[in-house]
Amino acid sequence: TIYLGPGIVFSGAWWGLRRLVRVARMHRVTSIADLISSRFGKSPGLAALVTLIAVMAATPYIALQLQSVSMALSAFASDGHSLPPSIALWVALGLAAFAILFGTRNLAADERHHGVVIAIALEAVVKLAAFVAVGVFVIWGIADGPSDILARIDRMAVSSGGEGWMINPERWFTLILLSGAAVMVLPRMFHVLVVEANDEDRLRQAGWAFPAYLAIMSFLVLPIAVVGADILPKSANPDLYVLDLPLSQGREGLATLVFLGGFSSAMSMVVVSAIALSTMMANHWLVPLWLWLRQAALSGPAQPSQDLGEDLGALMLHARRLAILAVIGAGWVYHRMSGGTSALAAMGTVAFSGMAQVLPAMVAGLLWRGATRRGAIAGITAGALIWTCMVFLPSLGLMSQPVMPAGIDAFAGSVLLALAVNVLALTLVSLTDFPSPAERLQSLSFVHAVAPDAAPVEATVPAEPLLTLAGRIWGNEHALDMFRRAAEAQGRTGYLPELTPRFLADFERQLAGTVGAATAAALMMRVGGRGGVTVSDLMEVAGEASRAREDNRRLELTSAELARTAAMLRESNEKLTALSAQKDAFLGQISHELRTPMTSIRAFSELLMEPELPRSDRDRFA
Questions:
Q1: What Rg do the C-alpha atoms of the chain give, in angstroms?
Q2: Span 291-345, pLDDT tens digits
Q3: Which letter does DSSP use for residue 356 in this model?
Q4: DSSP 473-487
Q5: How far apart are the first and last CA of the chain?
Q6: Under 8 Å between Cβ of 212 and 10
Q7: Which end of the chain is more exposed for a tag (fewer CB within 10 A), N or C?
Q8: Distance between CA 327 and CA 46 in Å, rounded?
């Protein structure tokens, strides 16, 4: 079931994954938390909530990898005894050092780590080669071919009375659902699938290659499991059959190859999980907290270019390194609290079921414009609380297993209950709620996969604070080169482009590719002195529309485009100074706000022109 779910998702719904990758790349998404928060109005609170769930769900996932490495090392112990418990701690420290060295060397502008991806690809090849080698050895080296494997299966089925071969329908369905969801929402899966993606067309190859990879692994699991259960002692751990079978036949070289495949697999899972989670924790916990503390410490009016610290990039790198240590440390603590003896598959399903609680919000955000931020928060919170009480805490032994009606599997019932409450809360709250203007604009961009609009930044803000901010995040050389290229594209000389809406949109998206959409919006607000669009903003524009109409007609005589930037407005205002000094100041402040309702009006107007739009929807949009 753990392989069937991802196989179904990739082979039957690659077009949906392609849409996910397209929208995420359009918004420069850095994590699953960033995707969901960006869809729902770039909400920092929602991003922090998703990060919390991801950290909780990742602890058993990382503990699973530490446990697998510890068990594999114990299998090689020459005296036949288990290695000391501290071996898991040393493995965790080594993996944390590797993740810090190769995952946080610098602050990438697009959050991609090509070297890490190459390492993942290499470990996948090593793992597959090792698994195929031990599978071939078991089928033809220990057994006498596929017919002998089938005979052993029949013999074991008869001896067990068939009870061990019965399928539990609700658990079967639940595990396929969870594993299919995990390949999209688990932090490391999302990071490799979406953040590290060079382009969406790679999913065409992944649509058949990844299910084929999983099919080969699944096909070889059965003979290894059957032969292991048949010839190894009853006390042998099934998770170690792949190692114990070669060792029992004196094939230490093959066992070493299997160990290297398993160790490389565990290493890549921990490292990528730590990198993905550290990005989320730094972007949505540590840096926003630092910005809040900086703002609280300042007295008097803020100076946009002076209150962001000397080196924000170094701060983020240190925050991510600290987060890596915290994440892997939490996995080791979970490993110790769970006793280090849980079945590996059971530990994995705890992580899968936790991250599955963000799936309804992600799917609704991509398909339903009516989904709101409050609905997403309500659904995720309700589902996560049920999962915590019925799955996560019982896995640590801190609470008893939930009691289900007779005939219903406890784990499957708990997961399905959490997801059902999650979806119900998301739907009901969204139907009774009304999204903010920023949410409506973001929902249009996500659902229809159109480019996002520019952030509302004051026209009076010069380009120097933005250049200073870019230099403190990416370095002065990269920032100067980016601003110089933007100025050249506008036909200007020097390093300071005009703050056109297009430039501001591109700048915020590049910023979001490093720090996340919510933090990028907060930084733009910090520099520009403005937040997101609010209802009061729109009402203020509507109240002044009658007086602005006459001024707009005068501006059209001197400019072919109304939405010019601060420099263009200053030139126009000089011509209007003799007429009205008050109107000049007003135009300098309101021009950017006028673009926001115009963008919304244009979007709804385009929807009204769709020929197949139902009459009821057409009236509502009108």
A1: 28
A2: 777 766 654 444 444 455 556 777 888 888 999 999 999 988 888 887 655 556 6
A3: G
A4: HH-HHHHHHHHHHHH
A5: 48
A6: no
A7: C
A8: 20
- 61's tokens: 């996932």
- How far is CA 49 from each of CA 20, 40, 45, 236, rounded to the nearest angstrom? 21, 13, 6, 41
d(CA 381, CA 583): 48
Of 582, 584, 561, nearest in space to 572 by CA: 584
Dihedral (Cα; 262, 265, 267, 270), 10-degree rounding:
-120
Q: Do the beta carbons of residue 207 and residue 10 sit within 8 Å?
A: yes
Residue 128: partners with Cβ closer than 8 Å, 6 or more residues away: 213, 216, 217, 261
The pLDDT score that the predictor gives to residue 413 is 93
Which segment, 200-214, 350-364, 518-532, is predicted with the most confidence on average? 350-364
Above pLDDT 90, what percent of the chain?
25
Contact 142, 245 (CB under 8 A): yes
String of b and e for 444-462 (b: at least 16 CB within 10 Å)?
bbbbeeeebbbbbbbbebe
Residues in CB range of 281: below 8 A, 6 or more apart? 51, 55, 319, 320, 323, 326, 327
- Helix %, strand %, coil % for the chain, to 5? 75, 0, 25
Total residues belonging to the chain: 622
Alpha helices in 298-343 (DSSP H): 312-337
Q: How far apart are CA 70 and CA 239, in angstroms?
A: 12
Which residues, at least 6 apart from 414, have a Cβ–Cβ distance to it below 8 Å?
353, 386, 387, 390, 391, 402, 404
List CB contacts of 188: < 8 A, sequence separation 6 or more: 269, 272, 273, 276
The pLDDT value given to residue 135: 94
The answer on pLDDT for 420 being more than 80 is yes
Residue indicated by tokens 């399903």: 349
- Residue 198, φ and ψ in degrees, nearest 5: -75, -40
State the DSSP string of 300-312. Answer: SS--TTTSS-S-H
Cα 309 from Cα 315, distance rounded (Å) = 9
Between 25-29, 232-236, 269-273, 580-584, the lowest mean confidence (pLDDT) is in 580-584
Burial of residue 85 (CB within 10 Å: 0-12, 13-18, 19+) is: exposed
Which pair of tokens denotes residue 228?
């292991």
Q: What is the 3-state secondary structure (H, E, C) of 362-422?
A: HHHHHHCCCCCHHHHHHHHHHHHHHHHHHHHHHHCCCCCCCCCCCCCCHHHHHHHHHHHHH
Say how far residue 575 (Cα) sits from the centre of its chain. Answer: 50
Check if the beta carbon of residue 514 is closer than 8 Å to that of residue 109.
Answer: yes
By the 8 A CB rule, do 38 and 29 touch? yes
